[in-house]
Write a structure and sequence with these properties.
Elements (H helix, E strand, L loop, with lengths): L1 H9 L3 H8 L10 E3 L1 H12 L10 E5 L7 H15 L3 E5 L3 H9 L9 H5 L10 E3 L6 E2 L5 H5 L1 E2 L8 H14 L4 E2 L5
Parallel strand pairs: 2-3, 6-7
Antiparallel strand pairs: 1-2, 1-4, 4-5
């Protein structure tokens, strides 16, 4: 079973191991460790690279529709960065629809959960999350085949070709054995 391979593999990255061991401390609703640091930790393992190679930050998402303030989101990020001493990027997925049009030029519907947000991440290999309520629970709406085979395939649910090209250009330079499929494929 592919999902069983992921948590032990992620624990080879010391930063992710710290977070996965301290899940009770997050105190955020519907909280998930997601995307970049997860798929990049897998790619580092498969490339035999050091655990932190290419990882710029660690994405942590949560879904709290009762508090859509940017201030609350920033306070959670500050609290968790101080607690763990890691470059955490903490985002409330219940408020993405408020800033998305300004950043990407189009409106989106509010997400109903963190899992709904994960399903719109830019690639099938990066659409992955590990529940911080129970790290044995992995949400990968497109499965894990692309991630483990190092295939980067666009997920056209939300992002466009420019965002995909920007991300994949960086990844190709850092993880040369990736197979990056073109946007038009």
């Amino acid at each position: 079973m592919q999902a069983a391979r992921i948590p032990p593999l992620l624990r080879t990255n010391p930063d992710l191991a710290i977070l996965l061991a301290a899940t009770a401390e997050f105190a955020l609703p519907d909280a998930w460790l997601v995307a970049g640091a997860l798929n990049q930790a897998v790619w580092n393992h498969l490339h035999n690279f050091p655990p932190g190679h290419g990882i710029q930050d660690i994405d942590l998402i949560y879904h709290d529709p009762t508090d859509l303030s940017a201030e609350s989101e920033a306070a959670h990020e500050t609290r968790l960065r101080r607690r763990f001493g890691l470059p955490l990027d903490v985002k409330n997925q219940a408020r993405v629809h408020l800033w998305y049009p300004y950043r990407f030029g189009r409106a989106i519907e509010p997400y109903t959960s963190s899992q709904a947000a994960i399903a719109t991440f830019p690639t099938t290999a990066t659409a992955i999350g590990i529940s911080l309520a129970n790290p044995a629970v992995i949400h990968a709406p497109f499965g894990l085949n692309d991630l483990l085979a190092m295939v980067v395939r666009p997920n056209r649910a939300l992002v466009g070709p420019a965002v995909y090209a920007e991300k994949t250009r960086r990844w190709a330079a850092l993880w040369p054995r990736l197979t990056i499929l073109p946007w038009a494929s």
